[in-house]
Amino acid sequence: MLTASLLMATASNAHAAPTGCSRWQDGYWAYSKCTGGTGTHAVSAYGMHVNPANGPWSVTGPRVGVGETSAVNFPGTIQQVYVDLYD
């Protein structure tokens, strides 16, 4: 019975998304960082591309683990910054 309980606790933790996430921007850069949970996260930035002919644009940074910072350079004016969470 104890072994089954430990296995269930391990399985449920393996499917937890990151928590304590924040996002911010500085000039042409967007960032995200999560401080708890498990899994990975990535920053996404949305806005107007430097070339107006391209219209709205979206870029996503690298997936990183909890405690790490995901960063992406945006080629234009950032309008929104999001944190994408992955189990």
Rg on CA atoms, Å = 17 Å
* Shape, per Cα inertia axes: elongated
Give the terminus-to-terminus CA distance: 27 Å
Number of DSSP strand runs? 7
Helical content class: 10-25%
% residues in beta strands: over 45%
Which structural class do you get from the secondary structure elements? mainly beta
- Average pLDDT for all residues: 87
Oligomeric state of the chains?
single chain
Q: What is the H-and-E element order?
A: HEEEEEEE
Helical run tally: 1
Largest sheet composition: 4 strands, antiparallel
What is the number of independent domains?
1
**Low-confidence regions:** 1-13
In short, what is this structure?
With about 90 residues, the protein is mostly beta strands. The protein has one helix and seven strands, in the order H-E-E-E-E-E-E-E. Strands 3, 4, 5 and 7 form a four-stranded antiparallel sheet that branches. Strands 1-2-6 form a three-stranded antiparallel sheet, with no helix packed on it.
Provide an overview of this structure.
The structure is a single chain. This protein is mostly beta strands. The protein has one domain (18-86). It has 1 helix and 7 strands. It has one helix at 2-14, and strands at residues 19-26, 29-36, 40-49, 56-60, 64-65, 69-73, 76-86. Strands 3, 4, 5 and 7 form a 4-stranded antiparallel beta sheet that branches. Mean pLDDT is 87; it is low at 1-13.
